[in-house]
Amino acid sequence: MAGYFSIFLVVLTIGSGLLWLLDHLLYAPKRKERIAIAQGASEQPLDEDVIAQIAPEPAIVEGAKSIFPMIAAITIFRSFIFEPFQIPSGSMMPTLLDGDFILVQKYAYGIKDPVWRSQLVEVGQPERGDVAVFKFPLDERIDFIKRVIGLPGDHIVYRNRQLYIKPNCAEGEQQQGSLVCGEYNKIKLDIVNRDEYMQGAMPLVRLTEDLPNVPHDILINPQAIELTERYYQQDGTRRDEWVVPENSYFAMGDNRNNSQDSRMWGFVPKENLVGKAVFIWMSFDFENGPDSLLPGWVPTGVRFGRLGNIQ
């Protein structure tokens, strides 16, 4: 089921629309009739003030008529086209930073009703490398954003900070992009720098991960211990290996040592998908220190260089 704000928008849209329609069909004709009778009895044309006294329009109807077009447009845009999100954490660094405001393409993975989120129209499927927003499988009140790494039927291995993918290939298919069918493909990593980002006192290594058709940068903490004992244990596989079930996806954060993702809790069901993150439309710095007079939520600057498409 959708979040409270989405439900509120739908209820407000339907409620204001029904009030407008009810007035238009039942009460507006009676007001016009009273005005016509008064106009016929008067030798002079009635001005607006007199008409308002003879047949006043209820305030609730006036309000409904004024907000319905705007609320309906917002509901349609937010439910079926694009929805804005704010990035609240660093799990997708360096692709997305805390303080980024993004647009999520809602129709990318199918058109769903805005309340129950049941599929109305099939549009497309997630592709490997997409940055996707989805309802957290363990608590669907929470929205997560991660990168799609594994598609249905793929075999995924994440071992010693290295990603391997054995793609699910159709019979007779030899290759999927740069991934060779029938074997585990080691995804190439190239170091970008070692001192741009920090986790506490520990420097993070920035690398380019050459995921097929979607090369992107990730962060690795070489000093952090791999907590494989916390990994989601799938029946019939080793602890750091997974086979993606049908109609499900394997998602990981780009900040590999600071992300709660499919390695820890399993797979993203297709019905939990919200949309594809496609654009950063605003990005703020929040650098108010403990000695600042301003609260932490007040931005200290705008990162204009971050605005643009999400890779």
Give the key terms:
Umud Fragment, subunit A; 311 residues; 2 domains; 4 helices; four-stranded antiparallel sheet; protease; nine-stranded antiparallel sheet; alpha+beta
**Overall strand count:** 20
**Count the helices. How many?**
4
CATH top level label of the largest domain: Mainly Beta
> What is the CATH architecture descriptor of the largest domain?
Ribbon
Write down the Rg: 27 Å
Q: Within the CATH hierarchy, at the fold level, what is the topology of the largest domain?
A: Umud Fragment, subunit A
How many distinct domains? 2
CATH superfamily of the largest domain: Umud Fragment, subunit A
Along the chain, the helix and strand elements come as HHHEEEEEEEEEEEEEEEEHEEEE
Unreliable runs, pLDDT <50, ≥5 residues?
none
Helix share bin: 10-25%
How large a portion of the residues is in β-strands, by DSSP E? 25-35%
How is the biggest beta sheet arranged?
9 strands, antiparallel
Q: Decide which structural class fits the backbone.
A: alpha+beta
Apparent shape: elongated
Beginning-to-end CA distance, first to last residue: 29 Å
Average pLDDT, all residues: 93
